[in-house]
Amino acid sequence: MQEEIYKVQLEDIFEGPMDLLVHLIKKNELDIYDIPIAMVTEQYLQYLEWLKIMNIDFAGDFIVMASTLAQIKSRMLLPASAEEEDEDDPRHEIIKPLLEYLQMKSAAEQLAERHLLGEETFLRGRDRQEFLTIQDEEYVQVGLFELIGAFQKILEKIPGDQRMEFTADKISVKERITQINDILEAKGSTTFVELFSEHPDKSEVIVTFLAILEMVKLALIRIVQHAQTGVMRLFYL
Is the pTM of this model over 0.85? Predict the structure, then answer.
């Protein structure tokens, strides 16, 4: 079956458990010092379930993070004894590494924006500025988990009784990549929704998702989201 043949390794997408945690905090506009552990744990587990549905192999680090969140949640549900009242908030176990991660990520992003010595020594087929033809102040870069959220919305519109079957006559991931390439070569860019038929089935959604992930991994496309409307757009690199 197709889902057994083609799988995506999550480490190839360069996002991990801390990125998912940061995504949930930003998505829900949470105070990092006052994280509602029960809600975050529930949403975190939901994302892991979606990763399985999308046929993505995620590393053990995601399981470790899920276990940590569940442990913190259980500790917060227990009534505190007199001796424990003065102890640290159980959430500090995740807040401290989360703050350190955000600091390192911010530093890495700042370094990435600096000019590299000799970066203009070799000729390039395209100038880097050609990738920034849209007004960047109106768009934000799309990560793996924002992409999963977009696919979730599409899958939720599909009737629940529809079976997901991958048969010989269904399109493969490789063929879907070719189709998306053709669309982008002809139009230069396309919205996320325009990639799907009027009434897509689950196999079409998942194959398209896998194709997009593969294209991102190969640095063939750039995906951005309009800050106001939330519309996602793919650009061909």
Answer: no
